[in-house]
Each structure stands twice: as structure tokens, then as C-alpha cells.
Amino acid sequence: MNLQDLEILEDDFDLFVALDDTEKIEFLFDAVESGIEASILKQVTKLDEQYTNIDVKHKISTEDFQFGQYRIAVTLTPNEVHLNSNSLKAIRSFTNKMFNDGLMLWPLKMKKSVFDIYRFYKSFSIIGRGTAISSN
Description:
The chain has helices spanning 10-18, 21-34, 36-52, 88-100; strands at 61-67, 70-76, 80-85, 103-107, 120-129. It is of the alpha+beta class and 136 residues long. The protein folds into two domains: 10-52, no CATH class; 61-129, no CATH class. The protein has a five-stranded antiparallel beta sheet with strand order 1-2-3-5-4, covered by helices on one side. Strand 1 and strand 2 form a beta hairpin. The longest helix has 17 residues, at 36-52. It is elongated and about 80 Å long.
């Protein structure tokens, strides 16, 4: 490997600095053997594959329900439930329904944001799931 003929420009050097030690050696070897452009493309492709394989951890779903004369917006994440409504009674009833269906909830101390269009807001952490509780 002859590194004397290798010329790394400023933009190429920015990528080189971002690589770890083994990737730098691989980059230099590929640059001497195949050229700077091929080496850069190889490293950028590896970085792209590394970051596109990251799993989406926050899956969010939102649904509105009619609860008597009031509407309640329920936002679910894998570990949290956020409830919005113009009625505290509707939020309490829905929370009791979730508890009776087997969800173990813990209240969170989160405040209403500007995106919450309804008057009241409650949020809970889902700490477990169990069997439904019979009302009989």
C-alpha cells in the first residue's frame, strides 16, 4: 500500500475524521486500491445501512371516542396513555374501563400542552397488563 500518492481533500477528510479506527484503516486501503470516491461511497453506504436499520421505538396511535355527550381523545404509545376531554367524568370513566379491562396504570405528572384541544388532560404509564376484572 503506497500512501504517498493518496490525496485527501477537506470534504473527504471530514468523513475520515468521523470514522472509528478500523473504518479509517478500511477507508485508506479502499482509497489506495479503488480510489477516494469508491471508498467514500462504501463508508457512506455502511453508515446509511447502520442508521436505516434502527427500529422505530415510539409507535403512536390516536383515536377519538364518543362518551355520552362528550368526546375523549385517547393517544396510546407502547408504555403510556394520554387522555383529553372536556369532561373529567368521561376521563375517569374511561380510566376505570381500562383498569377493569386489565391495564395497570400509574398516573404521570405531565401537563397539558398547546396541542391538547380539550379542557382536561390526564396521562398514565402502563405498568402492566393482566386479566380483565369482572364487575360481578
